[in-house]
């Protein structure tokens, strides 16, 4: 009789330990107590979409400003036939806006691409993220100093800037209210 096969077969996909953290390109290991995030790559598509919307919004502002300027010039112009026609103005405005949106989007996307290239060499930008637990030690010291100076200033102002009593007027205190007698 054959013994039943009790041998455990090897897992075809063994679980491996995650790779150790890589050192930054400058060779320094990240400091464990330094809070913050590192921006190492920018998504080109999101930069292109965002910059297109921003350029489009700026284009709308430009169109409104140009339209208002055109109306004011038309209103102030004594000879309406002397200036360029409104059709020419609208055509120029439309072409300018299209070039602005396309060029602005292309430049922002190119800048993001070059940032991605540079961040591969330098490790990206380190952003410090502030805790929401409360103010830092520097902020606490600054607020204490501000309060101390404000109190000193109020005391000085109260002592130095009291209203002067005119000559011939007597002031008496009546139930916490100042009154004047002639």
UniProtKB/TrEMBL annotation:
Protein name: DUF3566 domain-containing protein
Keywords: Membrane, Transmembrane, Transmembrane helix
Transmembrane parts of this sequence: 44-72, 92-115
Domain DUF3566 residues, every copy: 37-76, 92-131
Region spans: Disordered: 1-37
Domain of life, per lineage: Bacteria
Keyword Protease: no
Keyword Membrane recorded: yes
